[in-house]
Amino acid sequence: MTPNGTPADSDIQGFRMKPPSAPENPPDFNLCTCVLASGSKGNAIYVSDGSTSILVDAGLSGIEIERRMKSKGLYPENLDAVLVSHEHGDHIQGVGVLSRRFNLPVYMTPKTKTAAAAQLGNIHDFKKFECGAAFKIENLTIHPFSISHDADDPAGFTISLDGTKIGIATDLGIATTVVKEHLKGCALLILEANHDETMLVNGPYPWPLKQRIQSRTGHLSNAASKNLLGAVLHDRLEYVMLAHLSETNNTPQKAISEVGRALTRNRTKLAVALQDESSALIHLK
Ligand SMILES: [Zn+2]
Ligand SMILES: [Zn+2]
Asked: Which ligand is nearest to the CA of 42?
């Protein structure tokens, strides 16, 4: 650490301040990710290959996202882009602020842009994508795909580099064939496990909200998440991070035990992403 408390460059391999002239120590991983926050109060996922770094959603305040990144030794100044899944506030709250503060292009579909416009404010560099059409952000290949959720044009993503693939699917009422096809072959999955069905039915939410969550355009239950994982499981799946857990209608223990039933003959590591603290940094080779 430097005397003022910031991590020295040499502290963190692969996360140097820009401009990185020539990488003296190339990172010993292909992709690295950290779920900075997950849940109905805010979502943000950091993905990097050590030189290109992006956020998938920025649904906390800009300040809080910066704070969480720095607490993991990650520099917000090194971000290259923000990718937006859909226009709900828990996914875009900090997008406008971070984009303006760090001069970041914001990737989203045109329909999401229209729906999010009032909340985002002025975005100087809007880049559009369409679900189903892959594109690149420097070295990273991003493949957005449609998910079933009550937003105008919601997207899940895979992010890949040199054959290593991360799949991200939260905020989906059902796992369609399209979702399953895209999530096959990932080394790491960030999968929604929103609610325990019994807790939701017996819980305090008003009936219309319960119906919305259970609907085809709502959120994925633990049991549905287990079935989705069972459909895309393969021997090289290293990690599953369960995400967007309801704080009212689920517990980390219930999510792990239900979804974990899909992994009985597999060495895949299973963890839960939380609302109030960032996950571990996960490095994939
Ligand atoms: Zn959400
Ligand atoms: Zn949503």
From this structure: 1
pTM summary value: 0.91
- For residue 127, the CA-to-ligand 1 centroid distance in Å is 22
Distance of CA 274 to the CA centre of its chain: 12
Q: Can you give the pLDDT at residue 265?
A: 75
The pLDDT assigned to 14 comes to 41
Decide which of 3.60.15.10, 3.90.550.10, 3.40.640.10, 3.10.690.10 is the CATH code for 29-284: 3.60.15.10
Instruction: Give the closest residue to 176 by CA, choosing from 194, 209, 154, 200.
Output: 154
Q: What is the mean pLDDT of each run of 10 residues along the chain (285 residues)?
A: 39 43 67 97 97 97 97 96 98 98 97 96 96 97 97 98 96 96 98 96 95 94 97 95 97 97 88 97 94
Which contacts qualify for 16-23: CB closer than 8 Å, 24 or more apart?
A: 16/78, 17/75, 17/77, 17/78, 18/77, 18/78, 20/51, 23/50, 23/51
Q: What is the whole-number distance in angstroms between the Cα of residue 206 and the centre of ligand 1?
A: 19
CA dist., res. 47 & res. 68, Å (int): 14
Instruction: Indicate which ligand has the atom closest to the C-alpha of 151.
Output: 2
The DSSP code for 177 is: H
Residue 84 CA, ligand 2 centroid: distance in Å: 11
Residue 155 C-alpha to ligand 2 middle, in angstroms? 10
pLDDT given for residue 21 in this prediction: 44
Distance 220 CA to ligand 1 centre (A): 11
The Å distance, Cα 250 to ligand 1 centre, comes to: 15
For residue 194, which ligand has an atom nearest its CA?
Answer: 1
